Amino acid sequence: MLTRLEVDGFKNLLGLEIDLGAFTCIAGVNATGKSNIFDAIQFLSLLADKTLLDAAQEVRGVHGDRLGDPRDLFWNGYAAGAHRMSFAAEMIVPLQVEDDFGRFAKPTTSYLRYELELGYQPPSGAEKVGRLVLLAENLRHINLGDAARRLRFPHSAGKFRKAVLSGRRSGTAFISTSWDNGQPIISIHQDGGSRGQPKPAAAARAPATVVSTVTSSDDPTILSARREMQSWRRLALEPSALRTADRYVDPQVMDVTGRHLAGALHRIAYEDGDPERVYARVAGRLAELEGVAVRSLKVEEDDVRELFTVHLTESGGLTLPARSLSEGTLRFLALCVLLEDTSVTGLLCMEEPENGIHPANLTAMVDLVRDLAVDVNGTPGDDNPFRQVIINTHSPNVVQLVDPRDLLFADAAMRQAPDGTVTPALQLRPLADTWRVATSTIPPVTRADILPYLTEPPGAQLRLEIA
Q1: What total of structural domains would you count in the chain?
Q2: Which of 182, 288, 345, 373 is spaced 20 to 30 Å from 419 by Cα?
Q3: What is the extent of the structural domain holding 258?
Q4: Sequence-separated contacts (24+) of 158-164 with Cβ below 8 Å
Q5: Do 334 and 216 belong to one domain?
Q6: pLDDT mean for each 10 residues of the chain (467 residues)
Q7: What are phi and psi of 378, to 5 degrees?
Q8: 209 and 95 share one domain
């Protein structure tokens, strides 16, 4: 769970600090940079798994395509001068992880702060594209005694906080950065703290972050941080992927585009032990949509062609395959399947989930994405998966349906950049009298401030009249 994010120098994020709960809705008009928050989270996730250059080229890519130049990620882009960006992520990591060799391990502590600083080196010689440079990387524990103060979102201390936080650590960091003759040296420290010698390496030519190189249970806390960041997903549900039938040999886990929806639902249903019960729950949730008359839903197994296909039977008796459903219905169905999949944990980022949804169905959609997130007043487990959800929206209707405590309002403000110039940057403002206000460095939004955003635009017809 990502509980706090700090970003400086990435796109139009300058000095940005966000405290996050289980569910967050970022609202604002187009072109403010709301999507850059998701880009920053996606970038950190990619850096936990790929090289610096690969991660930079895949941010906001499609199907793993590499797009753009690394300079596209810096606030000053292609301008002359130094290029630097920094990140800090405070997170609650899994209490047990599996390494790349199938061995299980437990972190020394599950509450961590990860810091990363990157620079840019222009191309030289035969190089045509510059590269990112690792300038600093740190991973430290956060004292569990400080959790009540730092986990600011409303939650149950006994059922939630004590269940997800464990362990202790003092002194040495798990990853630290020092300097030798002006060059950064990054060291890995064993989980035993002061026992054992650190493993240092020069950062100047490092092709990847240290976190991304840890694959074994020898460093369980770093591995837990890596697994947590790898679990941060950016959903981009695509109708073509959602309409595709699955072969028996395909993965039975739905990917970020919605591919393998049928295989995933089949697996979930049979893992439950009562497939019809799972299908009934999904059908019942789908039936909350106005205009979707659902009698039943199931995954059909075609043993001749070896295919799984989702079929929906309407109240009138007509049976339709998934490829015949509307785009909005398919996206809603995909989220219903995610809700049932207890194996899906971590952070889910969703752009404008209201797209393709009729206004009459916005309440059902907002309730569904909120229900995907863990209930922080209960104990995480199979019936309360440890999931976190962030959505962004420009819809006033969605804003009115979201709990005010979960809202952040995005707008652009002039900020001083690292080189002293003034440039427009994204700022996120909480609603007055909500939990984020205590630590926010910018004025909160009042209900009067957002009233124009929530009202109909000038000239809009509140009723239709025929002359």
Answers
A1: 2
A2: 182
A3: 235-394
A4: 159/377, 159/378, 159/379, 160/374, 160/376, 160/377, 160/378, 160/379, 160/380, 163/379, 163/380, 164/1, 164/92, 164/95, 164/110, 164/380, 164/386
A5: no
A6: 97 95 94 93 96 89 62 90 94 95 94 96 80 95 93 96 88 89 90 67 86 93 97 95 96 96 97 95 94 92 96 92 92 97 96 92 96 98 96 93 95 85 92 92 87 66 55
A7: -130, 180
A8: yes
